[in-house]
């Protein structure tokens, strides 16, 4: 019987905590710090493991929503071309599985980045204003979701105490 992902992560945490960390010399402060950081990240992964797919799907949905907001940008040839690529990225259906969701989100985010660059070249004034507003609005929402995603780990004192 193969161990599941949580058991594997727990095994790595034990090996780092019980074998690697104690065997490091006292003067290896940076190495000890890095091992502790790795242990912490692995523990976070274990705690979030059952929800990662939903979280990444939500990130994709947010990227697509932002992309749809930005496909109204107008301007010269660079903006029109970047807008067309963004429309394609938003319209494409992600495949199945976590890797496909991550790839689709990355594709949309890259297309948004290209549109931002293009608008800086030849986008019209209304597009520039709309672009900034839409990106800041979505980033505020994403930031709150990201803070909530990690609230249980005490990184954000405001959310951890709420």
Run of helices and strands: HHHHHHH
User: How would you sum up the major sheet?
Assistant: none
Helices, by number, come to 7
Estimate what percentage of residues fall within beta strands.
Answer: under 5%
Q: Spans of 5+ residues with little confidence (pLDDT < 50)?
A: none
The radius of gyration over CA amounts to: 21 Å
Could you say which overall geometry the principal axes of the C-alpha atoms support?
elongated
Give me the secondary-structure category. mainly alpha
Distance between the termini: 42 Å
Overall tally of domains:
2
Mean of residue pLDDT values: 90
Total count of strands? 0
Helix percentage range: over 70%
The gist of it:
Helix content is 78%, strand content 0%.
Observed structural traits:
single chain; mainly alpha; 2 domains
Task: Please give a structural write-up.
- The chain has 162 residues and is mainly α.
- The protein folds into two domains: 5-50; 52-152.
- The protein is 78% helix and 0% strand.
- It has helices spanning 5-23, 29-48, 52-70, 77-91, 98-122, 125-149, 157-160.
- Helix 3 runs parallel beside helix 5 and helix 3 packs antiparallel against helix 6 (125-149).
- The longest helix is centred in the C-terminal third of the chain and has 25 residues, at 98-122.
- The protein is elongated, with a radius of gyration of 21 Å.
């Amino acid at each position: 019987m193969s161990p599941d992902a949580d058991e594997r992560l727990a095994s790595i945490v034990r090996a780092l905590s019980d074998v690697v960390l104690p065997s490091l010399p006292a003067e290896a402060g940076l190495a000890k710090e890095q091992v502790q950081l790795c242990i912490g990240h692995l523990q976070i992964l274990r705690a979030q493991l059952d929800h990662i797919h939903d979280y990444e799907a939500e990130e994709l949905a947010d990227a697509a929503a932002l992309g749809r907001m930005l496909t109204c940008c107008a301007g010269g040839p660079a903006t029109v071309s970047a807008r067309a690529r963004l429309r394609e990225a938003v319209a494409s259906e992600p495949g199945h599985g976590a890797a496909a969701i991550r790839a689709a989100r990355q594709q949309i985010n890259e297309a948004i980045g290209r549109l931002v660059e293009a608008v800086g070249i030849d986008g019209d004034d209304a597009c520039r204003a709309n672009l900034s507003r839409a990106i800041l609005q979505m980033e505020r929402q994403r930031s709150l979701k990201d803070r909530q995603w990690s609230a249980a780990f005490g990184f954000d004192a405001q959310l951890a105490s709420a």
